[in-house]
């Protein structure tokens, strides 16, 4: 009897990739929700507050419900990483990931600096004091573009840098994953770092510092699941519904202490609450996307939108620079306790999606036009 090869013994990647494409649009919507402007919940979490429904709903929407998106994307990336590594080899994989992750990271941070950050720092030197943009500083601009030791100019794009670091460390992670017991110990060590955020360094070299160590942890867990032949798709809808409903109730419960307690007085409690929210969010995102991708019509619609999801991730902060100003020009400040707040959420998400679709289509058609132009020039030469 023929012994199956390494790839043959693993779950069907073609089916999984199609499944992941259906997930990406939904997950990036959650990321977009977490970055909604005007609704700022960070100050509410840091300090103790009296009960207020608007603050409670802000924390629920941005800091509990939407927090599972990044761990879920990291898990999926780790699950698919070994296929790319074993198929293409380390060097080619890194080149491909640099094109896919580092170039968009640098380009869209540069655009954000030119469109907003530089002018904001000129008019207000206290804006993003961690960035050295004005007066012009080449090192400061490169740090802001590539997220070296500072949060990038376009903050959500830190995920691209952290994800690239995961691929950069893949041979080390894969080697650890193959060592029995050592792999569990390493996962437990990462988990400890995730909860207590002792340091985001894995190796003593500052450019390899992670902004969120939970990205590496989820990536490693996904890689381990693939290495051991585990299928991550969840087809039990009854169980999925129970997990999602349980997580929603959990988020509603957890939003209350996050609002009324002072983080400095209960540091360990807040660390554990944030960890449990991310863990539950990642699992419930897996359940939710598994359910959404099953009905054929909805699955086809999600796959249709998925080609715009990366553009949505790259551009939603640009859209959010203008939507609040436009909204406030015609409406009062939105609050989630009334209809205007939910209308603002709808307008923001719709605007971000429409902008992403337009930008993607313009780029697609211009790329085809440039290719035809260069082909015509080449033929004449």
From TrEMBL:
Keyword entries, A-Z: Acyltransferase, Membrane, Transferase, Transmembrane, Transmembrane helix
TM stretches of this protein: 27-48, 68-86, 98-120, 132-151, 163-190, 210-227, 239-259, 271-289, 310-330, 342-363
Domain Acyltransferase stretches: 31-360
Molecular-function annotations in GO: acyltransferase activity, transferring groups other than amino-acyl groups
Pfam families linked: Acyl_transf_3
The name this protein goes by in its record: Acyltransferase family protein
Organism in which the protein naturally occurs: Ostreibacterium oceani
């Amino acid at each position: 009897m023929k012994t199956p090869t390494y790839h043959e013994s693993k779950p069907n990647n073609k089916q999984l990739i199609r499944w992941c494409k259906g997930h990406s649009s939904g997950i990036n919507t959650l990321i977009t929700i977490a970055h909604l402007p005007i609704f700022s919940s960070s100050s509410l979490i840091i300090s103790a507050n009296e009960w207020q429904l608007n603050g409670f709903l802000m924390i629920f929407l941005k800091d509990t419900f939407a927090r599972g998106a990044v761990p879920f994307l990291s898990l999926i990336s780790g699950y698919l990483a070994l296929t790319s590594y074993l198929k293409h080899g380390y060097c080619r994989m890194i080149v491909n990931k640099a094109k896919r992750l580092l170039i968009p990271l640098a380009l869209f941070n540069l655009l954000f600096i030119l469109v907003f950050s530089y002018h904001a720092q000129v008019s207000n030197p206290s804006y993003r004091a961690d960035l050295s943009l004005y007066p012009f500083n080449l090192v400061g601009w490169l740090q802001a573009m590539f997220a070296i030791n500072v949060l990038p100019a376009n903050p959500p794009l830190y995920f691209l840098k952290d994800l690239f670091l995961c691929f950069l460390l893949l041979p080390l992670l894969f080697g650890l994953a193959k060592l029995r017991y050592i792999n569990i110990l390493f996962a437990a060590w990462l988990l400890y770092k995730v909860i207590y955020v002792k340091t985001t360094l894995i190796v003593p070299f500052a450019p390899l510092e992670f902004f969120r160590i939970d990205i590496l942890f989820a990536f490693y867990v996904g890689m381990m699941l693939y290495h051991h032949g585990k299928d991550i798709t969840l087809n039990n809808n009854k169980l999925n519904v129970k997990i999602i409903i349980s997580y929603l109730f959990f988020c509603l419960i957890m939003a209350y202490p996050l609002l009324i307690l002072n983080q400095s007085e209960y540091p360990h409690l807040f660390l554990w609450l944030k960890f449990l929210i991310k863990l539950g969010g990642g699992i419930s995102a897996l359940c939710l996307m598994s359910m959404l991708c099953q009905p054929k019509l909805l699955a086809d619609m999600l796959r249709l939108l998925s080609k715009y999801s990366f553009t949505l991730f790259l551009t939603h902060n640009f859209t959010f620079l203008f939507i609040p100003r436009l909204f406030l020009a015609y409406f009062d400040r939105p609050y989630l306790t009334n209809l205007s707040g939910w209308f603002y959420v709808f307008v923001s998400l719709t605007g971000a999606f429409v902008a992403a679709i337009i930008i993607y289509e313009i780029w697609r058609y211009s790329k085809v036009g440039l290719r035809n132009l260069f082909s015509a020039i080449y033929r004449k030469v």
